[in-house]
Design goal:
This protein is of the alpha+beta class. The protein is about 50% helix and about 20% strand. It starts with 8 loop residues before the first helix and ends with a helix.
């Protein structure tokens, strides 16, 4: 199953902030596996140790989430692979937590003994925010699919505005072929009396998120939205690059990133 939810950096920051915060609050409130009684060594109270462990979680999740964001921009990520990634994050967190625990235990506890304890406490604590965020992502994904199908049954006029929010172009969504970013400009390709026309608009790719929702356009590349109603075929060009072939009189090839290929295929 394709992991087609939001991969932008803003949503990775949510993981980075929520995981250590939840761990600290959950441990203080519910004391899983008597974690408050466990961290009493080194001359510090359990609050200090929990704060340090939360900092370790923050650093680990920050590194792994930045890596995940970079990888997801290039490679296809399925839900199964994403679940394995989350399990790997918990394993990494546990390894560093056990290293900290062993150091502060002043040799009275072996690393693998501490690792077993840290796996239990971290896995139990972090499974809740992971489950909540993944459920939210699934709900958002299904909502986006339903909205796209609903838009497909209605006649929609798409409005394009420039960077100063001045209305520059209003066009039926079925006439739009694709939208491509070129530095500070957008190239809007559309059909007019059967001919392919181009409109150059000064604005950013991010500004088209609302138009994409209203018009049922789909992100197929970091610099391109495509109208799936005009996709005739999905495949690879002669160089082995994924592309969408549009149903124009002279076929047009629109680039498709690997991470968007599977989700785009499901809409056709």
């Amino acid at each position: 199953m394709q992991f087609a939810t939001r991969m932008d950096f803003k949503h990775q920051v949510i993981y980075i902030v929520l995981m250590p915060l939840f761990f600290f609050c959950f441990s203080m409130l519910y004391n899983p596996f008597d974690i408050l009684g466990y961290y009493v060594f080194g001359g510090f109270g359990p609050e200090f140790h929990l704060l340090m462990l939360s900092s370790i979680i923050l650093l680990c999740i920050a590194v792994t989430r930045v890596m995940f964001w970079l990888i997801s921009r290039t490679f296809k990520v399925t839900w199964a692979k994403y679940l394995l990634w989350c399990m790997g994050e918990i394993a990494a967190v546990s390894c560093f937590m056990s290293l900290y625990t062993t150091l502060f235990a002043s040799g009275s506890m072996g690393y693998f003994q501490a690792l077993a304890d840290c796996v239990k406490s971290s896995a139990l604590s972090l499974v809740y925010p992971y489950a909540f965020l993944m459920l939210r992502e699934l709900v958002d994904e299904k909502s986006a699919e339903l909205e796209l199908k609903d838009n497909a049954g209605r006649d929609v006029l798409v409005k394009f505005r420039d960077e100063h929010q001045r209305l520059k172009l209003t066009i039926e969504r079925n006439s739009v072929l694709y939208i491509r970013s070129d530095n500070n400009y957008l190239e809007i390709y559309y059909l007019s009396s059967g001919a392919v026309k181009q409109y150059l608009l000064r604005n950013s790719m991010k500004s088209q998120e609302e138009n994409a929702r209203n018009g049922g356009f789909v992100r197929c590349h970091r610099s391109c939205y495509v109208n799936p109603r005009h996709i005739k075929m999905l495949g690879k060009d002669k160089n082995g690059v994924y592309c969408a072939v549009l149903d124009t009189e002279t076929p047009i090839e629109v680039p498709v990133s690997r991470q968007y290929y599977e989700s785009l295929t499901k809409l056709l």
